[in-house]
User: Fold this.
Amino acid sequence: MSILVVMEQRAIQGPPAWNRMSWETLAAGQQLARELGQPVSAAVLGQGIAGLAAELADKKLDHVYAVEHDLLKDYTPDTYTAALRQLVEHAHASIVVFPHTYQVRDFLPKLATALGRVAVSDVVAHRIEDGKPVLVRQLFQGKLNVDVRFAGDPPYFASLQAGAYRADKIEAGSAAVEKFAPQLTASRIKPLEMFREAARAVDLTAAEIIVSVGRGIKEADNIPIVQKLADALGAELAASRPICDSGWLPMERQVGSSGQTVAPKMYLAVGISGAIQHLVGMKGSKTIVAINKDANAPIFEVADYGIVGDLFQVVPALVEEIKKAKGA
Amino acid sequence: MKIIVCIKQVPARDSQLRVAPSGAWIQEADLSYEINEPDAYALEEGLQLKEKHGGEVVVLCAGPERAAQTIREALAKGADRAIHIEEELGAFDPLGAARLLAAALAPEKPDLVLTGLQSDDLGYGQTGVILAELMGLPHGTIIMQVEKLNGSIRVKRELEDGWFQHVEMPLPALLTIQSGINKLRYATLMGIKKAKGKEIRRVAAADLGVAPGAACIQLSRVYAPSRSKQTQLFEGPPKEAAAKLVEKLKFEARVI
Assistant:
């Protein structure tokens, strides 16, 4: 019985580098190990990852598994699943935790299915009851939470939401690095080049104040209503994903897991319900203001100030009051 | 190209959700339902691929009787026929639900299976990938573009931080589609009329030989999340609320 943390590295530009969410997962793995009285190990997969594995050697871990193979150089769900299936067995892991990244979303359900299990995805917290973990995840885009328990025999699998655990809680120690060479065959899936679309003309991360607009704005013709608010505050205008999907604002103005991650002095969310994919992109903001007609919208869970009301009435009133306050 | 699009019916996006007295799920009685949004994009992608390359679009949906409405809407948009696995899904975990879909899919021998990347209700984001594994198909997730080649496809995967990757894989394959990949169409009057004559084949889990089985995960309690921050809420007429907010932003948060 042991906990296994699967760290994530990517080589997009230059040599393999950590996906920083991995450190939060490592901290969570150590916490689970303490609570359950089990040893914890960590693994990193890839090729040319000896340096990354060595970085784990000064953490409080039982083992560090450097899972290396030429076929792991470029990620595919087939090779990652095959390698991890062998590692989970080799390490006798009972609970395997992953950061909830796009890559993990691509292979973890496949790995769990191959072993006849179901992964608990996107976990935001946990507690221990009767010596067993109870995992908390969100339903309905963050409107409700649910407690989830593993059933049946281990191994159990879970992926952890960004920001749910704190990387600065990692315990130092020492661990031996063990090389693990999986038996792999070439994937049917051929990964090609990684690329970014046209360079971002808008750097939202530099903005001191951001006014961000969501579905509540209803149609493209209403965008000027929030633009006026942004102008009054000297703010950059941003948006949640659906607004950019609909082409009402360009993709480069999108905040969230698939857009930019921002932490301005003030983030003013207008008509944004606050799905987790949006919250991870802005919850580090110093002051968060939310305007939404639904008092139960998850955006109010992270907001410092809020107005529950019709944005079409509230925003123009706010523009007037801001102009007054600035004029004074 | 024979394309099967898996769709799910979920509570309408702006529903006021109430936890059921049992605490095990939400009160469903007075909710209205709609197609899961990412699935609507998967359907549109299927329709566009058919228009470009010919073939057939079959909609596959597992859910109770009420899901028939969502299926009819998909047929009105242009899907050729549908399979409705008429079943309450409460007892099925994601693996069980995917087994249902796989059992209905296998005899169809599709060239391409499309799903949305996640559901707006349970939000596991797993059904598509589980289905691919059960059917032994290569898969791609969070797809923003699909290009058919000769016997294979080239897709654009969304990565994090504004990065993308092109990936190629042989057909048959399964893709989970990201919202925003295309522009959704509306059903036309002609489409709605035509849909009435289209086939909806109803099957039950028992017909497919799939029982819920022992679940690998158990949902034990549904509840409203607690707030991580103390939010100061301003109420009253918009002008009053706005004035109070601005005062706080100016003198307390000092951001104006």
User: Anything to note?
Assistant: Chain A touches chain B through 98 residues (CB under 8 Å). Chain A has nine helices and 17 strands. Residues 208 and 264 of chain A are 5 Å apart (CA to CA). Chain A has a mean pLDDT of 95.
